[in-house]
């Protein structure tokens, strides 16, 4: 499955992302990214409430209000200039927050790296997406929006292509994904493996 996704990325997603980047003016690309970020803030608001992170919920809700009203439907991120920083919470993180931390790693077709916990969370996020209850999209519109979101996200990651290892890419992606999810679930409060290493001499570097 990893090889399939790798080939899809190399021969389909990456060319589409490069074409998108080539034909899309910078300010339009930024507006598209902001638009989907605004939708994501709604999801973050809901999951912040579910995790009892009430301050984060208030910030996320205010971001949605500011960017929707003053940012022309989310095309401009005016909330950040007011000190309302974006965060990212989803139902997979909510499950992790309430104790479901360890989970089997999966590689899903097209969707890529995940775990049993996070895939379950993705299903809940999709079915219970609050945006669908606020704005009525047709099936075709929903598919089109998701496609644009994926291409825009891939375009934003083009610069990282040269940073990826050519050897043992599966292990690299697995480790990076699991570490990132652990970081998000714990809000950055992860253990430093060198914190208790009193014999480590940093002056050697």
Strand order within the widest beta sheet: 1-2
Tally the helices. 8
- Cα distance, first to last residue? 40 Å
Task: Indicate the proportion of strand residues.
Answer: under 5%
SSE-based structural type: mainly alpha
Helix content: 55-70%
What would you say this structure looks like, in words?
The chain has 205 residues and is mainly alpha-helical. It has one domain (2-189). It has 8 helices and 2 strands; from the N terminus they run ααααββαααα. It has helices at residues 2-23, 26-50, 54-69, 91-97, 116-127, 130-134, 139-156, 169-185, and strands at 105-108, 112-115. Strands 1-2 form a two-stranded antiparallel sheet. The longest helix is centred in the first third of the chain and has 25 residues, at 26-50. It is globular, with a radius of gyration of 19 Å. The termini are far apart.
For the structure shown, list the relevant keywords.
single chain, 205 residues, mainly alpha, 2 strands, globular
Secondary-structure blueprint of this entry?
Blueprint: H1 2-23, H2 26-50, H3 54-69, H4 91-97, E1 105-108, E2 112-115, H5 116-127, H6 130-134, H7 139-156, H8 169-185
Antiparallel strand pairs: 1-2
Helix pairs in contact: 1-7, 2-3, 4-5, 4-8
In short:
With 205 residues, this protein is mainly α.
């Amino acid at each position: 499955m990893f090889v399939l996704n790798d080939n899809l990325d190399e021969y389909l997603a990456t060319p589409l992302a490069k074409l998108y980047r080539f034909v899309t003016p910078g300010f339009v690309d930024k507006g598209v990214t902001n638009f989907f970020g605004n939708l994501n803030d709604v999801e973050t608001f809901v999951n912040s409430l579910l995790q009892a992170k009430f301050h984060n919920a208030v910030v996320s809700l205010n971001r949605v209000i500011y960017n929707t009203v003053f940012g022309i439907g989310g095309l401009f991120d005016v909330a950040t200039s007011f000190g309302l920083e974006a965060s990212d919470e989803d139902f997979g993180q909510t499950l992790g927050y309430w104790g479901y931390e360890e989970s089997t790693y999966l590689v899903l077709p097209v969707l890529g790296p995940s775990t049993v916990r996070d895939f379950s969370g993705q299903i809940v996020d999709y079915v219970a997406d609050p945006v669908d209850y606020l704005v009525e999209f047709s099936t075709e519109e929903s598919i089109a929006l998701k496609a644009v979101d994926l291409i825009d996200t891939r375009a934003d990651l083009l610069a990282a292509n040269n940073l990826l290892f050519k050897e043992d890419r599966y292990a690299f992606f697995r480790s990076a994904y699991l570490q990132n999810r652990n970081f998000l679930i714990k809000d950055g409060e992860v253990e430093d493996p060198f914190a208790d290493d009193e014999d480590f001499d940093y002056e050697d570097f």
